[in-house]
Design a protein that fits this description.
Rossmann fold; homodimer; 494 residues; alpha/beta
């Protein structure tokens, strides 16, 4: 049976939303790295929606759940299994899960081909043999699946969000998977599913891309890849996916030393920097340098309309910011055009003098310009037909000085809620997106109140559909990724 | 009198450490943007060491200080003046300060050549004429001077550190000056002097570089430049400086639009991207993209010995980190060589199994490896003669999970103090520097305790001489700047 035929038959619904879930290898005495019990704790903390059947040959119980001594003892069929037993016991456990009717299993255990030993490779082959009989496998040597809708979670993830969203993430690295899931929680990325597939003995980039291409829940695909197994199939799968939705790829192991590491990490083949660049460009996938850039690109894809934003207006305070903004925009092929004369004059009438400028970048001159004035500035600038998108660099952190003078907490003094509300309204009414940069140069022990206020502010902006970045340069880079993707996609569709 | 002759005579000691300081334009009714009164408040908060003489034509008083109605009314001589009156009144105020014997003045007021008007240019010329009679001027259109040793501070800077250190910063932008001063406070950059010189009517890049080149307090010079006045003089001054100490330059306005902005911001000439790159490379100045990179480069220059670090050992957790580390190191021309066999074996004997690796990057496999084990790992790896420098990517944020289980605050559970102490000892004993990366993917409203713990941890590491970065890629980029500078300097000195 070809991979494609098998995929058609794969019941991903039962894998991502299992009603009956076995955890094989739940030891309360710290064995097998405590992965099984860690996962049980995590699933309970996440309020996983299905029924859990823990398995431990010694029996026992935890948090109200009795442990089954054997997989075979579980009453009835299971949908999915989490396997966390010692490597040598994995093939047998997987076979037992298959016989119990599981559509799939994730194998958290390490000790397979990544060791580079014959024994490890043989054990991984045995996994593949069982899988071929009719159970799909995620892993081994992985952190599993995170699916907010069902409450499945990654290995050290008892505190991930249950809010579903459009971002899927496929990762050969468990660390990257859990890091992105955590970043998403505060950055405002919500996930359809995050899959850490480790060595990828069975399910890996090609099958998963093919699935996600047609998954209605998924609007954006992120990938952390170290190597691929079948170049042609990958090329077809990613091409098919990018025709429908953006795919953002972080390829690790592009250096010589990095490639050596890839072999020992997930036992897959690397490939040169140039080959990857050219292939990814050819299929209109977005290549990024690191997880930070990947998260920021996904954020822009989530929050911005599906189009190209050529001309920006940028609102901030201070002349150097304007200079920086223009440099960054030009670096990424965008423009910051001077506003039309009448609009510029209207903007200038709104702003404190001297020191302000209504040209574009718009310099509001001081950090305490009231939200309702800022709202008018953005509303006015949006009326310039040149402008596709607006960026506001918020200076909220400066309210610390005012808070200190008033003897009040900064979160009470900085008008972040009002600003978010008003700017949310402008974006909606004008139909032109607003991107927010929450700048902050104060992050020390004495200024954690600023960090807290900005975390609260971020949430307010996100709730109103405004994406938030830490830094202007990063915001513009992320917008550029959106431009690159839709420019090419529009060209291809013509 | 040539600029050089004048500089020789300039009494910088009286400018940076004034015993008697006038603030001209201290209005308590919000006039002239409140700069004067803001500065008075700031200086008092900073416990400025000298005597302050506020001047306001209407008289009045504030916080125990009586205002003089005229500069002439101040008894005796003054050393330095802060001028914050309306632009049209500036030349006269400056002349009065000169007559009072001031060695220099900073002019915070805006409304000069940056307006692009004839009137503005004329007014600035008048400043220059007064200066030529024998008073050095910083500004106009600037945020002034920050000098931790004397307590002089920048405009919105009542909360800067009084801790002196080796970093000087020259900035055409006031915003960049205050931002770097704030960043320095938590990043561990201590300053000799920060000078925001705005339009630079008198003192600017050339004079200030010439001064800093010979300033015993200054070991590293950072610059934010938009444009220069005299290319040849700048070339000579920066060359002379880099022969003695590193100079890190962020050049704003390299794009076409950015250059337009430069003209209106500080009324100086820009110059093409390529020209700047080649000039800066030729004089062995380090060019950076933004203030973030500038701060990180300065941090590396502050904390690392004056040499080239070709081969790194990197200690972290997780396979992808190793891949990323190798990619980043190779990007910047550094190596992460496999450790010698006996050393690798010793390291592996220290680490939990399975999942760890002693090759290099060293994968410690889990985030809860005890500080004393980590200390032994770094001590052992340092014994490999290949290794010039070690980087540890700390996983302290993972202690949140443990803190939650124990029902304790993370700052009590995460062993950051012990880790800082032990690693500080390893760096000292081995003579090989250790760079710390405090990674953290959790920054949301629910995880501010992690942010706080890491801010405390950062302080502990810094106190023991270990520089801290947020991100591995940024750390390696900063080390590379140190390498670039000393490689070329050693070559030149041979």
């Amino acid at each position: 049976m070809s991979a494609k035929e098998q995929q058609k038959r794969t019941d991903f619904e039962r894998i991502f939303h299992p009603q009956r879930l076995a955890i094989v290898g739940v030891s309360t005495d710290g064995g097998a790295r405590g992965f099984g019990i860690g996962m049980l704790v995590g699933l309970q903390a996440m309020k996983f929606e299905g029924e859990i059947f823990p398995v431990n040959p010694k029996g026992g119980n935890y948090a109200g759940l009795n442990f089954y001594k054997k997989i075979e003892d579980i009453p009835g069929q299971i949908d999915f299994a989490i396997i966390a037993v010692a490597a040598k016991d994995v093939p047998q456990a997987l076979e037992a899960c298959r016989k119990k009717g599981a559509a799939g299993a994730e194998i958290l255990s390490a000790g397979f081909s990544e060791l580079g030993t014959e024994e490890g490779k043989l054990l991984e082959n045995k996994i593949r043999e069982v899988a071929a009989k009719g159970i799909r496998v995620v892993g081994p040597n992985c952190f599993g699946i995170y699916c907010p809708r069902s409450g499945l979670t990654l290995l050290p993830g008892p505190d991930l969000s249950r809010q579903s969203g459009p971002v899927a993430f496929l990762s050969q690295s468990g660390g990257m998977a859990i890091d992105l899931a955590h970043k998403g929680k505060w950055m405002g990325l919500n996930f359809s599913k995050v899959i850490s597939f480790g060595n990828g003995a069975d399910l890996r980039e090609v099958d998963l891309l093919n699935y996600l291409a047609d998954d209605a829940e998924t609007g954006i695909v992120g990938m952390y890849m170290e190597g691929i197994k079948d170049g042609d199939a990958f090329f077809q799968a990613i091409k098919k996916t990018t025709e429908k939705k953006p795919v953002v790829v972080c390829k690790g192991g592009l250096s010589a030393a990095g490639q050596r590491m890839v072999v020992s990490h997930t036992a897959s083949m690397g490939g040169s920097r140039l080959i990857w660049q050219s292939v990814l460009r050819q299929v209109n996938a977005i290549q990024v340098q690191d997880l930070e850039e990947l998260a920021e690109a996904c954020l822009a894809f989530c929050f911005l309309p599906q189009k190209v934003f050529q001309r920006l207006s940028i609102v901030g305070g201070g002349g150097a910011l304007g200079v920086t903004a223009c440099d960054a925009a030009e670096n990424f092929g965008m423009e910051v055009p001077p506003l039309a004369k009448n609009i510029r004059e209207s903007v200038e009438n709104l702003l404190p003098k001297p020191g302000s400028s209504g040209t574009n970048p718009i310099d509001v001159a001081n950090p305490f310009v009231e939200p309702k004035i800022l709202k008018e500035v953005l509303r006015t600038a949006a009326a310039d037909e040149q402008i596709d998108l607006q960026i506001i660099v918020s200076l909220l952190y400066h309210y610390k000085t005012m808070a200190r003078m008033l003897g009040k907490p900064i979160a009470q003094v900085a008008p972040y809620r009002e600003l978010a509300e008003l700017l949310g309204g402008v974006a909606k009414d004008s139909g032109k997106p607003i991107v927010v940069v929450l700048a902050n140069s104060k992050r020390g022990v004495d200024d954690l109140d600023i960090v807290e206020m900005l975390a609260l502010a971020r949430r307010e902006f996100l709730e109103r559909g405004l994406p938030v970045f830490d830094d202007l340069h990063e915001a513009i880079r992320a917008i550029n990724h959106v431009n690159t993707y839709y420019e090419k996609r529009q060209k291809n569709e013509r």
